[in-house]
Amino acid sequence: MGIEIERKFLLKNDSWRAHVQSKSRIIQAYISVNPAATVRVRVTAAGAFLTLKGKRHNYSAAEFEYKIPAQDAAAMLELMSPYPPIDKWRYRVSYAGNSWEIDEFNGANAGLLIAEIELDTATAEFACPPWLGMEVSDDPRYFNACLVQQPYSTWGK
Does domain 2-154 bear CATH number 2.40.320.10? Predict the structure, then answer.
């Protein structure tokens, strides 16, 4: 069984852009947004994937991810998701020996940028980059499964 241990942060400026190592587009849709177990289909340049995630606790969640045929993923995106897909750019940035993923959302979630770091343990220490803002790891509004149901553009300022 795979376990994902992840922390999420907002960004306080764009200085991270000068350190981008790679950029890729991600299209993903949720077949199920049940809090106990979400089911997601994702399409990237690296392929198509079906992912099942358990409920998050202490930055951790059980995660099962399987590569699937691109045709199957396209059909799932079109036929099985009750919500429009999330469209985002993912940037990879290294800082102090850690790899950060920064998601820049498009469409109904445009304007939202989230930095994520995956860790080996929930208590692992890491250096915070100067562009890192407020932590939102425990705020469910920033979970992708919630963003499909209530996009960032609907939040009100």
Answer: yes
